[in-house]
Amino acid sequence: MYSSVQTITIDEDNPKYVTDGKCIFTGENNKTLVTLVPTFRGEFVVPSFVQDIYEGCFRSCHVTSIVFHDNVVSIGAWAFAATDLTSLQFPQKITVVKNDMFRNCPNLLYVNLSSKTTIIETRAFKGSSNMVSLEFPPTLETIGEGAFADCQKLVIDLSKNENIGCPKVCLAQT
């Protein structure tokens, strides 16, 4: 079914969506990346015209790494859930790690957050059981409930974060 799609075709007269065969784009100047074919494997380079990554964009894709450019300003919830990512370098303009963004990414070892990150939302890394490294920038203020649930190998160091707000259950089950 959908998980075996290798090429996307959209009528060229479609006023809302366009494709390059492997991705769907929408919005003014195609600035929003909606999805990537789930059969894509390897490294994906986000096109330079993309500013927004849609909710669930890469979900369940076999992508192992993603290269962002400096113009990406938003990444939606569930964007990388259940992917084959091993690591990720956040674009510098991203300030919020949305809910369930990296949920169930068993190959994920580390993430480099933006130096401007202020919030890690609910269940952001839940089930990324092999993640071992995540450096928290001093700008981080809030960690959502269950953000690191089932991340048994992750060592958390908040010593650089003087203004952190963390519900008592944010680290539960780590």
TrEMBL record:
<dbReference type="InterPro" id="IPR032675">
    <property type="entry name" value="LRR_dom_sf"/>
</dbReference>
<dbReference type="InterPro" id="IPR053139">
    <property type="entry name" value="Surface_bspA-like"/>
</dbReference>
<protein>
    <recommendedName>
        <fullName>Surface antigen BspA-like</fullName>
    </recommendedName>
</protein>
<dbReference type="Pfam" id="PF13306">
    <property type="entry name" value="LRR_5"/>
</dbReference>
<dbReference type="InterPro" id="IPR026906">
    <property type="entry name" value="LRR_5"/>
</dbReference>
